[in-house]
Amino acid sequence: MKIALVTDTYHPQVNGVVSSVDTIAEELEKEHEVHIFAPTRSERAYSFNSFPFYLWPDYRIAYVRAKTLAKIFEEKDIEIIHVHTPFSLGVSGVGAARHLTLPAVGTFHTLLPEYTHYISETLGLLLRRFGWRYVNWFYGRFNAVTVPSTPIKESLVKRGLKNVHVIPNAVNVDLFHPGKEPPSSDPCILFVGRLGKEKRLEVLIDAASSVLEEYPKAKFQIIGRGIHEDWYKKIVKEKGLSNNFVFEGYVSSPDLIKAYQECDIFAIPSDTETQGLVTLEAMACEKPVIGANALGLKDVITHEVDGYLFQPGNSSELSDYLLQLLEDDKQRREMGKKAREKAKEFSAERIGGQWVNFYSSLLG
Prior knowledge:
Residues 14-174 form the Glycosyltransferase subfamily 4-like N-terminal domain. By secondary structure, the protein is α/β, with parallel strands linked by helices. The chain contains 13 helices and 15 strands.
């Protein structure tokens, strides 16, 4: 097959969509021809003219007409078009597919309506309503829609979308693997993700106070950047926790893997995850995970088996689970091993096979 992967976000940006596109492209390329189309220049992608998005200058908006993109697809004999983002390039991608009458798949990676506070907190409710209308319009144009978890499928179907299928994002379990025992005897709790309010990092910050009463030298390692980074740092400072929180910013892939391997527990308090790819990366590195009992995380974490699920926003429950794992080395290691086994269910090889079968079903 000749497959086009269309995405509005790609290198040098660092996020789950980029990781997902790279992982599945590498797997599909073993037997198929894959072309990536993105707004930013890179060795792997066909890029277009673009301009920076005013809210996040690192993100770029491509401007290319659907007919222009269709011509490129024709030249490359593309057979199926897989769009990963609902922005300008994604709109042109599905438009090109319709122009050429080629099958098109749209993957719903991000709970877009829950991110409208970036535009205006005052108009939050109105923008969320518009966001869901846009989601219905955009994804209603595809032959099929995929989502990475069952709760997200249920949410989209409830809002009127049809032909929605669950195909999880894949994790490279060879790249993300267990390492040596953590080098320090002081506990380390890791968070990886964009530093935006939707990630609910303040819940982990609140939970830290109780943990530090028992483990005053515990470290909370925060990897990632975002528009609310300074806001989170201010909360940490006001609570007098600056000595225990380390904000690393973005790190290289080898350093990220090392951080997963050397932490004791991975925590993700976000309640808007469509799946939570970073959670799977931590699990692949044999770490127990504690996450909010919401949406996609419920498909990834099995409560009391490979981690714990806590009531969203409940910092007291989160701290209880953190302390329980820190106090029981045996349980922590056993959960970590089970987490690794769970991550293998989402391996690139397994998920890649699902994509090939799915594409084939659309081609007939």
